[in-house]
Amino acid sequence: MKISFLHYALILSLTFGFSSCTKSTFSGEQTEQTKDTVAVLDTVATQDTVATKDDCSGDVMCTRIFVTVSATVKNKDNSPVQLDSYKIIQTATGTERKPTVDAADAEMQRKSGAYPIVTDANVKELANKEIEVEFIGYKAGKELVKRKLTVGADCCHVKHIAGELDIVLDK
Do 121 and 131 contact (CB within 8 A), yes or no? Predict the structure, then answer.
């Protein structure tokens, strides 16, 4: 991966402020700080170990947020549906998946009608993959909702790929 001169200028302007960058870079003057930054950028720009879409083994820069893909279940009047229980079944294997959520968060989510499907705790398992799951919700011992979803992850975070996450019940 190569970075052009314009990319250097943009990065420098974001790093040091546009006016100091343009004075030192474009006029030919270079401060020690500018030289150090250019040297670091040059090293980073010429490395061939940048991860590709299908390869998470290189140096990948990820945000520190913790992503959860959740389905929300509501009534027509937009009130949350508090399910008694729910399951996430991986359709290819029939295996039940258990999202990693602590008890306090799970109760808060249930009260708001939000039900975690996958979290960033699943990133390594799902990196650059897509899986189909079935979300099945129960209330009063009866199946109330059933939807198929496709989820996956990149090198950093889980993501929703297909299927209905905002479920509105007719009842």
Answer: no
Asked if residue 88 and residue 12 are part of one domain, the reply reads no
User: Within this chain, do residues 159 and 81 fall inside the same structural domain, yes or no?
Assistant: yes
Tokens 């708001």 -> residue: 112
Q: Which domain holds residue 40?
A: 5-45
Residue found under tokens 């209905």: 164
Condensed to tens digits (0 to 9), the pLDDT of residues 106-152 reads 778 888 999 999 999 989 999 999 999 999 999 999 999 999 999 99
**Residues 8 and 39: beta-carbon distance below 8 Å:** no
Question: What count of Cα atoms within 13 Å lies in the side-chain half-sphere of residue 1?
Answer: 13
> pTM for the whole thing?
0.64
**What does the pLDDT look like over 40-76, one tens digit per residue?**
344 343 333 334 456 677 777 889 999 999 999 999 9
Burial 74-103 (b: 16+ CB within 10 A, else e): beeeeeebebeebebbeeeeeeebebebee
- Give the angle 123-91-122 at the CA atoms, nearest 5°: 10
Q: Based on the structure, what is the number of domains in the chain?
A: 2
Based on the domain organization, do 152 and 72 belong to the same domain? yes
